[in-house]
Amino acid sequence: MAKIPSEFPLFLGVGGQDILSDVQDVNLLLNDLNNHDPNKLVELIKEDYAHLDFGVDVNAKQVIYDPMIAFFKAHWFQNNYFVFNGEDYAHLDFGVDVDAKQVIYDPIIAFFNAY
């Protein structure tokens, strides 16, 4: 975590009922990020969300993905980190869409390799 520059934009989504995400690990992560630029870090903590709620909850688009896309537009697109139009993607598309590698993962990997 120490190698992540404090000005690097981070979006952290956490479900309070997610049994796949250990509360102690999340707290350690948040503690490690306490010196991160607060204008570059968004912590979206949904206490009533479990792991699958991020992908299948009826209001996940409004609660999770609209804020996430707004974050990307404000911090990543605006600063030309990489170009990605994810507005048409739901959470599950990131894992099963036939174009996901080309549309999502290749630009992200290229971005991190360049950073």
Per-chain topology:
Layout: E1 10-15, H1 23-32, E2 41-46, H2 53-56, H3 60-77, H4 93-96, H5 100-114
Parallel strand pairs: 1-2
**Largest sheet data:** 2 strands, parallel
Strand content is 5-15%
Shape: globular
The total of helices stands at 5
Radius of gyration: 15 Å
Q: Please give the order of strands in the largest beta sheet.
A: 1-2
pLDDT < 50 stretches: 80-84
- The first-to-last residue Cα distance is 15 Å
Proportion of helical residues: 40-55%
What is the SS-derived class?
Answer: mainly alpha
Instruction: Give average pLDDT, whole number.
Output: 76
Q: Order of helices and strands, N to C?
A: EHEHHHH
**E-strand count:** 2
Protein traits:
single chain, 2 strands, globular
Describe, in plain words, how this protein is organized in 3D.
The chain has a domain of 73 residues. It is 44% helix and 10% strand. Strands 1-2 form a two-stranded parallel sheet. About 4% of the residues have low confidence.
